[in-house]
Specification:
The protein is α/β, with parallel strands linked by helices. It has helices at 18-26, 46-61, 75-80, 93-108, and strands at 4-13, 33-44, 68-70, 88-90. Strand 1 (4-13), helix 1 (18-26) and strand 2 (33-44) form a beta-alpha-beta unit.
């Protein structure tokens, strides 16, 4: 059975936390489904966005499912950058988990 791996982020992500963020994201590079909880993130700069896009590229090269991101205080940033074209964006953890269950059912069919 395919499992969804959830990683939670909080606070501010900028160049000072690049290595911390990269380490968290690298843990998702090979999992079938990744749910990133940004509901408690209050700030992200371009360094953090670049790390997310780096993860997406690695996962795409491995033909893994697109990442789902639970939005929070960074919703406007994601909208402005049109990251909905790259990631699945949801409003709550409940929506993210529900989507993961729907995806699992589609894979069974």
């Amino acid at each position: 059975m395919l499992e969804t791996v959830i990683v939670t982020f909080d606070g501010e992500y900028d160049i000072a936390r690049k290595e911390e963020m990269r380490a968290k994201l690298e843990a998702l590079a090979s999992v079938p489904r990744a749910l990133l909880d940004f509901s408690r993130v209050t700030y992200m700069d371009s360094t953090a966005v670049t790390e997310l896009l780096r993860l997406h590229k690695i996962r795409a090269e491995r033909s893994l499912d697109r990442e789902t991101i639970v939005l929070g205080g960074v919703q406007k940033l994601f909208e402005l950058l049109q990251l909905n074209k790259v990631f699945r964006l949801v409003d709550s953890m409940e929506d993210g988990l529900s989507e993961a269950e729907e995806w699992k059912e589609l894979k069974k069919a």
